[in-house]
Amino acid sequence: MRMKNEGYRFVTMSSAPVKDGYMDILYHFDKDLDLKHLRLPIKEGEAIPSVSGVYFCAMLAENELQELAGLKFDGLVLDYNRTLLQDSTVTCVPLVNKCKVAERK
């Protein structure tokens, strides 16, 4: 909320594994071409508070990270339940597990 009150716009967010069992969530903001980045270290499996209540557009990045990196966001204003980018038949998390693609006949 502080970033929004200071006039920063939400650009995107990303995640990166840092060591076994831990990840960093990186939030990227912009104000007049001045970029700020915030890092939130988390333990894998830990739910992350959603920022989509403050920056509605963050729900796209949060849904993407849920689908592709296996993260979970609490309080997400619009949760696609891992179907925003992937078909509902996908059963693994692409950036965490090696997904096998079934051949269509």
TrEMBL record:
Residues 8-103 form the NADH:ubiquinone oxidoreductase 30kDa subunit domain. This is NADH-quinone oxidoreductase subunit C. GO terms for molecular function: NADH dehydrogenase (ubiquinone) activity. InterPro entries: NADH_quin_OxRdtase_su_C/D-like, NADH_UbQ_OxRdtase_30kDa_su, NiFe-hyd_3_EchD. Pfam families: Complex1_30kDa. It comes from Pseudodesulfovibrio senegalensis.
